[in-house]
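Final report, closing paragraph on structural work. Over the funding period we assembled a curated collection of sequence-structure pairs, and we close with a single example.
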Amino acid sequence: MINTLLLPELRELLENPDDPDLLEALTEMHPANLAEFSEGLSAEETWKLLELLPVQRRAEVFAFYPHHKQVELASGAGRERLSQLLEAMSHDDRVDLLKRLDEELVESLLPLVAKADREDIRRLMRYPEHTAGAVMTTDYATLPPDITVLDALALLRRQAPSTETIYYVYVVDDQRRLIGFVSLRDLVLARPNALVRDIMQEEVISVRVEQDQEEVARILSKYDFLAIPVVDAENRLVGIVTYDDVMDVLTEEATEDAQKFGAVTPIEDNYLEAAFVTVWRKRAMWLSALFVAELFTFTALARYEHAIESVLALSLFIPLCISTGGNSGSQAATLITRALALGQIRLTEWLRVLRHELLMGVALGATLGLIGFVRAYLTPESVLGGADKLLLALVIAQSVAAICLWGTLVGSMLPLLFKALGFDPGYASSPFVATFVDVTGIVIYFNIAYLYLPQLHALQ
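Its predicted structure, as stored:
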């Protein structure tokens, strides 16, 4: 029943809310599956489904809906219905939801929420976007250091229903300063009369509330934690960031990076849910800028018009040469940008990166240059335009090698330069690098041609 129930059947069952099959399905189905399964329902039908569930399970299912579906449900719900849901939701999830709602609706909801929850919501909403404070939750368990393990376990039983995780329990003093942590496993295995102070680990890896969320994600991933504590400037515990929140951050950051690589200003909404005008504006802005930049290729080619007339075969290899630079530059930019995002390289290592990419550019250029030499040497006599076949092959080979090296260096250094100037390295996108290298590649190509081909010497 649970695995084979179809949307029309669910609608039919909703007309009979006392149906035991429906209640069984709703009880046994995982909240994520139930959210996915019911996503095709209208807002009113979804609320009818949710209200068959206990409020805590209702909040669990609601959290698995896509953001646009959450906003649709929240905007169409009554204030009483929504305030109950907010009180049951995890602290970080409800703040994420409220940030997406109209400010007037949020202000009308907050008076209906319990005072403690209202204060917690306002506090969390004050933290800047993309910081640890913006993604943390205040659902965590704490213990004082001077109680026994037996008392600690009893205290945890009381805290557990309102905490997101109790696998890590943080030890704080009377000023809520973080002084250690203990795992649930350690508590279970310890002697009942042992003090928490004696079994806790004092070396606590924590993050500051103002730290960037991407850096927090890297730290959590590095140490393979289920959660990491968040502290303020006085080392007071203010929240925790859990692994599921980090997964959301990593997905969000990877999506933004991928969109920037494609020269698209990041789009927050789902692809098909985003407004057409919004997508058009964010794509057209970059495409227009790149198009204007590409106009310089026309200027560069116009400068070498007489060279093309003298040796027609040169025009045949222009796409080959400039695409080589764009491809090698885009490849390098992608690798360096991703390495920066993962913390594999730092700005202070720019010279090491330069040396590495210099050698790589030479090796790649030699490889492609050899292929270019063979292809140019096989050019039919009918299109050579009087040029010497060997000399033309040398021009193509050295141009491809030089442009490949240039593209590799540009692609590797631009992300580092953007990072040093305070911009997101993702903006050193593949199209941006390719456009820049296209223009400069034409100049490199024809200057090498002037050097080798005697027909062009008189044109200099």
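The longest strand covers residues 178-183. The chain has a mean pLDDT of 83. We thank the funder for supporting this effort.
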